[in-house]
Amino acid sequence: MMAIPSDELLLAATSKGDREAFDQLAARYSGALDGFFRRRLPDDGRVEELRQETLLALYALLPSYREKGKFRTLLFSIAYRKLASSRRAERQAEPLAEDLPARVVDPDAFEVRDAVLALPEGLREALLLTRFEGLPAAEAGDLLGCSAEAVRARVCRAKALLARKLGTPTRRKR
After folding, report:
1. 0.90 exceeded by the pTM?
2. Which residue from 133, 135, 145, 150 could staple onto 139, CB 3.0 to 4.6 Å apart?
């Protein structure tokens, strides 16, 4: 049985010019990046584009990369910046027509998605980064520019707002 190389080993190989190592990293994190963007964007085809932009930016950064933290934090910080740039460009674009057909899968899923998207940005990002991307509060705090405690408070507030909007009771830890 062959051992799966760690992110650090693949990063080191990539920085020495091993394109296959980067391809392995890209394959390892493509699904996570797609999920990151899908949870924050409407289904309009930008997910793949933003994933590719994120991976290209990562590839360009790797020759000068010096490990200062976790690789996932670096990757999601690049993805977060790409998303922010895309949203800025989106505000300047013409709005889409309202009568475009939407793919309907589960009406409840849209209600939850709309409720999450309606949260204030700081609360929404804290919730998405910790609960959906799986980042610890400290890493999410690094991305959001706040402390781990602030991230935990934002997540708690986001969950309470979602529960109120969706009519679900919140659970209290004892």
Report:
1. no
2. 135
